[in-house]
């Protein structure tokens, strides 16, 4: 992950404030963690922190968690971590000292500089009130009035005219002055105040003169010059304000020479650079160290963060609730990341054991063949993926146990996770809808179990049940992967036997890979000789002898088996549904 500010200035949604509160209007509440309530404002601030977060996080946490689950589990883990060495180590680190500069600086850059051009809302509103006439419109309105009228009509009796009086509706126009609302013209106000505050530099004026025809000696139009200057500076606000704040802080123009402000004892030090390089992916660090232009680029950003952070503090922006909330979330996430990496992950790694034989078969799957010799690089890649999955499952189990000690309740249907549900009930529901023929709903429930409870017996069984559905849908690769994940997490002999058989059957009958099918059947014949532990052992032997043959006629296969000297029981009639019986037997695991 690269330092996100390098990609430019992102315009982010302004958030309100507050973390978790003891009591709050339920309309603004998303979740409860014990007695604490997570508000919408807290969630918005958390997402903003997550978008701004400048370094990579542990792959296992948050992993693929949704933002609301990440927030809830951050709070749950932090409650444990806050009394551990992790909290002290994070808060005393150089890394956190820079993040304390980074987050206020980034918020100030996006909320104050990019949106308000460096002015507070109060300053903009005050200027608007004093110059309201610049934002007025004249609106013509029409009022309906009654007008007296007199109409002359002939009188039949006297042969003379008589006058009748009455009224009629008439429209009268009047002009009314309307002022556009501040929120509608805020950006225009900021532009005008910017023009009053920051005058075009001499260099900029000379540049504009040079752009004109050499014969044109008239004075530059001041209003047009101010607009041109504004748009030129608007294109690179971070650099513009860095130079402004440097001048404010040090009383001189920012030097062009890097050595003036970068070096030992200078505003940005080599130690700072080394610290920030740790925020970049490891493969990028040496490129920066070898390239002086990249070091200068990075040093400038550090100087910006430092100056913007100081300005945020001096202006009071950093102590506003929304900014404080984002920084507080960042601190908690840092502590939790440290705790997960240094205390939870080692326990997870110690708790796992990977069956290398099962891993070897997963390697065959990845290679789509049974190689004569195993390539150590490819095999180690497969083994590493398996180990990481197992570690993540064990870590999830630790976090789930922490969650179980809290009373967690999600209060809005759009903000929830499935870990508050009972895995036993979910499995029973999934099995029920599967048995009633609602395959799609069953598949979704099994996926939910596999994703949320991979460490529980119900989640492990869900891998196998998913594989059966995926086989029916002809998603053979996905089915094999889920069968393999099931094998890696079960030691039950019969279930292992049946699962190996089903993988072999998929390879043989559906994917035309007899070599891989044979490897699965041979595992059964070698490791499950006792048919009491594996009802499909005889079937595996039979299938291994007839690899790559279509299962169109069981009678033909039986006759061929007899020709080969194998005993085929004829006590019971063999019909065309025998292959289905084999499949059904394999699913009873």
List the helices and strands and how they pair.
Elements: E1 20-21, E2 29-33, E3 36-39, H1 40-52, H2 67-81, H3 85-91, H4 94-116, H5 121-130, E4 136-155, E5 160-179, H6 182-197, H7 202-211, H8 222-234, H9 237-250, H10 270-277, H11 282-290, H12 292-315, H13 321-351, H14 356-367, H15 376-404, E6 408-410, H16 423-435, H17 439-452, H18 457-472, H19 476-487, H20 493-510, H21 514-527, H22 537-545, H23 554-563, H24 578-587
Antiparallel strand pairs: 1-3, 2-3, 2-6, 4-5
Question: Can you summarize this structure?
Answer:
It is built from 24 helices and 6 strands. By secondary structure, it is α+β, with helices and mostly antiparallel strands. Strands 1-3-2-6 form a 4-stranded antiparallel sheet.
